């Protein structure tokens, strides 16, 4: 009987270990599936937000510009297609693929630069309006409404959207997070952080925003000083980059045989592609160095 007892006990322990192993392995698989599903959902949301932001850059923050910009895009495409057909002679599929990639990158960079320029021009006025409104005893929502009404352009439209969404009771975090995605600058991040803290806990917002205004003014002075110090190097890079293009145009009229060889002959086009590739690569390095220095 004692042997049977130990056998039953051992069988129970083994059964328990086996069941526990299956349970934890199944739980691990379920968690992995949940993690992978969450990762996929986050990826889809990121792509969606990037597409929305790219469209925002494409229309410059105003949907009325959509038709005009589409017409301009097609016009530029046909002009470059004709130049490729006459001179560079890239394969059609290769040309269309390169055009799409470069067009997407161009709109993205142009939109970022335009947004930054608009923000730097109009944001000090936002600080002044917020200071004036809070000094006169107006509430935070009223101050944001003043910014939307008094500031022209797309930054004013942005504050109108913020004021409208906060007025109907939307979560402040999601409202300011959406706005920060369109204006991802450290000054705006500090600004919305101040507003969120004031909405949650209150406090002396006027004094903090005044300090932020002084910090932004000092930062702009430093940026202007950096640009002045690097202006000569940037101009030199632009002149050096223009030399091959100017030489190529001169060769069309002064050395037509060599020009036809580079354009029409397959071996000559290899030289043309090498020159274009090395030019783009060199200008990219110069641009990267200039970005690092400023």
From TrEMBL:
The chain crosses the membrane at residues 6-26, 66-84, 90-108, 233-251, 271-290. It is found in: Cell membrane. It is a multi-pass membrane protein. It comes from the Bacteria. GO terms for cellular component: plasma membrane. Residues 128-251 form the Type II secretion system protein GspF domain. InterPro entries: T2SS_GspF_dom (IPR018076). Keywords: Cell membrane, Membrane, Transmembrane, Transmembrane helix. This is Tight adherence protein B. The lineage of its organism: Bacteria, Pseudomonadati, Pseudomonadota, Gammaproteobacteria, Pasteurellales.
């Amino acid at each position: 009987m004692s042997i049977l007892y130990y056998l039953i006990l051992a069988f129970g322990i083994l059964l328990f270990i086996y069941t526990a192993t299956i349970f934890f392995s199944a739980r691990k698989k379920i968690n992995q599936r949940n993690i992978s599903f969450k990762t996929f959902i986050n990826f889809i949301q990121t792509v969606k937000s990037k597409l929305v932001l790219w469209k925002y850059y494409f229309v410059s923050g105003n949907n009325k510009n959509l038709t005009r910009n589409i017409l301009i895009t097609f016009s530029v495409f046909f002009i470059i297609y004709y130049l490729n057909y006459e001179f560079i002679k890239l394969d059609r599929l290769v040309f269309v693929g390169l055009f799409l990639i470069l067009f997407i990158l161009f709109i993205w960079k142009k939109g970022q630069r335009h947004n930054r320029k608009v923000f730097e021009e109009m944001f000090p006025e936002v600080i002044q309006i917020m200071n004036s409104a809070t000094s006169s005893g107006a509430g935070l929502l009223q101050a944001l409404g003043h910014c939307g009404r008094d500031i022209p352009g797309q930054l004013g439209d942005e504050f109108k959207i913020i004021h409208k969404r906060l007025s109907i009771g939307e979560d402040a975090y999601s409202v300011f997070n959406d706005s920060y995605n369109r204006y991802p600058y450290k000054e705006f991040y500090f600004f919305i952080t101040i507003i969120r803290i004031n909405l949650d806990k209150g406090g002396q917002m006027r004094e903090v925003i005044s300090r932020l205004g002084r910090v932004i003014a000092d930062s702009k002075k430093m940026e202007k000083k950096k640009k002045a110090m690097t202006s000569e190097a940037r101009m030199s890079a632009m002149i050096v980059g223009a030399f091959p293009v100017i030489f190529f145009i001169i060769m069309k009229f002064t050395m037509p045989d060599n020009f036809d060889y580079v354009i029409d002959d397959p071996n000559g086009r290899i030289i043309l592609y090498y020159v274009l590739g090395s030019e783009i690569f060199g200008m990219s390095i110069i641009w990267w160095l200039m970005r690092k220095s400023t």
